[in-house]
What we know:
The protein has 22 helices and 7 strands. It is mainly α. It folds into 2 domains: 334 residues, no CATH class; 122 residues, no CATH class. The strands form 3 sheets. Strands 5-7-6 form a 3-stranded antiparallel sheet, with helices on both faces. A two-stranded antiparallel ribbon has the order 1-2. It has a two-stranded parallel ribbon with strand order 3-4. Strand 3, helix 18 and strand 4 form a beta-alpha-beta unit. The longest helix is centred in the first third of the chain and has 45 residues.
Amino acid sequence: MESKHEIGPEGENMDTQKTSETERKKLLQGSERRTALFLIGLIVMIAVACAATAEMSVDNFFMIANWRAFQRHGFYITDPLSMHHTFRCSLEKWLSCALVYGIYETAGLAGMRVMLFVLTVLIAFLQYRLCCYTSGNRDMSLVFTVFMIGTMTPFLQFRPQVFTIVILLLETLCLEHWIRERRVRYLIVLPLLSFLEMQFHSTIWPCFFMVFAAYLADTELVSGRPEFHFKDKLPMAAAAAACFGTLFCNPYGAWSVFYIFRSYGDADMNSCIMELARPTYMDVTMLIWLVLMVLALLFENRKMPLRYLLLFIGFFAFSCTAVRNEIFLCALAGFVPCFLLREKKLHFGINLMLLLPLLLIVFCAGSEQSRGKEPDELETMTSLFDELKDHGIADGSDIYCDFNTGSYAEYFGFHPYIDGRAEVFLKKVNGEQDLFSEYVRHGNGEIYYRDFLDRYDFACLVVNSDMEPAFYQELLHAPEIEVLFTNREYTVFLEKRK
Length: 498
């Protein structure tokens, strides 16, 4: 006979507990998947919002004008764009200019937006890979990728900085792989990256070596004493030397390498150009990353490699030098607090996927508002220079305008007094004259308008009353000057014929 075993209350409780535990695990796994999908969706949404609301800026039209000049003159050594044709200058960031020109001429604004979307997604992917490789925590890596790409949003435009960010992230990943795996292939890639950096954005190459410096200075504590491991650093030092050598492989050689040391630090430039201003202590982007780092250190009192701390401090200090440098802190600093919080688990009790459509609207609206007035500005400039031609001011004429308008003037075929390349108008760069200082002084009324006009032979003067109120008032009341026409905030003046 078969014996029947009765299941007692204890057995039933054990089966119930096993079932409950299995269900909890399934629910937790489902929640983790939904959380990961939500964060990935958030990253894609930020990329879509950035690309969909991006517009061509004055810098982009200047880059296009630069590449047109290259097509006529090759890698020029004197200025073909402004009216000062004897000023020494060079085509810096030539590869960025070529790319912007090619995409805009071929596919217009839509093509530029697609490029920005692809680059933003690539940046986010590299940030996630860096966070995940260093921390081993996928959920926290996604969270900090959202933070990084989110705080970068105001800076994600059609500018060479985005190429630099991609290069710096690849460099950091290669060095991190080298530290952990000791495979030479990761060092071989680095000279190629430094070469590309010099072609895309030659004036920011020191950032490439800031990353190198953090890894070369890394030390390890053994029995409470720091050990440098000098021999282990030799391959990395050799790679750094090779990278520095490739900087000189550019159309202008040493001139471009040392261009950065001649082109920055002018007091007039720093006071007139907003993006060169230093961030204040209440700057939101800087505060976000400082607070995140402090909280990570407080909640997780863990040891971390010295190189991570040096990277964070280095790029935080670099961001303090100018507002436009904050993008480098946002792009590269996030993996450090992520590493500190690597043991944390992420779990949301609700399905956040339902919030994605609402967040997409919010991101697009916020991004649109923060981008400014580029479409209106382009419309104004097109109307202004078309009307200028209608009044008989021919292409190629020497005209006066401010440095922002000057870049548009070059795009539309004129030779302005000054343009957006402020550093070209410094004597230590052009070798002839401190024109930027003159521009600031006469705009403020420190130079008498007649003394200024007698120095040059302008076909006309395009004056923005908001940017140069003193100069505008002088011309408006000058008996020998007449108004040719007014176009929105611009007034075009002409000297009366004698």
